[in-house]
Amino acid sequence: MLPEVSRWLERRSSIAADWPAQKLWEAKRAARAARVSVVLPALDEEATVGAIVGTIRTQLMERHPLVDELVVVDSGSTDRTAEVAARAGARVVHRDDILPRLPALRGKGEVLWRSLLVTTGDIVCFIDADLRDFSADFVSGILGPLLTDPSVHLVKAMYDRPLEIGDTVVPAGGGRVTELVARPLLNMYWPELAGFVQPLGGEYAVRRGLLERLPFPCGYGVETAMLIDALHLVGLDAMAQVDVGVRRHSHQDDAGLGRMAGEIWQAVLERLHRDGRVPKSAGGLNTVFAQFERDETGFRVRSHDVAAHERPPMAGIPEYRTRDALAG
Length: 328
Hints:
Shape: globular
Strand content: 15-25%
CATH architecture: Alpha-Beta Complex
């Protein structure tokens, strides 16, 4: 590991217990610090979204008024996600109602990008909506460095991520794409980012001034791209990570993880091309993935288009600039 990464790990790594909500609220009040928005991107998460929203509202809005705004962005759920989230106390916005002149693209990154138009916080905290046994530490922990140190611009959560299949639990088995795809790529091409324990984790908090300057891959490449682009824009020392314990959530099957890996590869290649480190292929990438399933007749091929699109930095979107002008 690079010496500067070792120094960064000592300087910019902490644990959630270092950032109790009461301490952060007192610091925020004393300094008249930034407004905080929490965003949950959600798709068919009625089983978990209510408990997450309820915990944040009770502990971080009512008991300790640390969070100013709690928004669930529904990306087309067919279950009761929106109803459950609203009843628990979140403001629910449908993805397709945000910036309607641009037809929505599939993917988590698309929802995160659009959420900037319907939130007002100077700090935006993203939390996945499928977490089980959710703790408010996931929010207060990653807000801690941002609310107490103006030189920090992005904070990622780190945690143990068990793989749970029925009654079987593999304590550290839940980060398959991280270990097989994202971590090798970051170590090889951006070794400064090798100290991030969970580079693909969905829990992180970022200053709006940085978020609005970032391009957003629409799919699963968004977290990898955000780390790489933030490194270019603000540098490693402006980034931090906080240990929040254990993260339990639903897991995709191997085929789904393969498609996720394809999107991450595309985000990485786009940045390697941008930096002139890898030439673009004249014919472009083949983004139709062949995957196989066995049925009673043998193996059957299924093809999936995993073409990854990117949205430009939000700062350049006219509706966003108009919104800022009206707010000013």
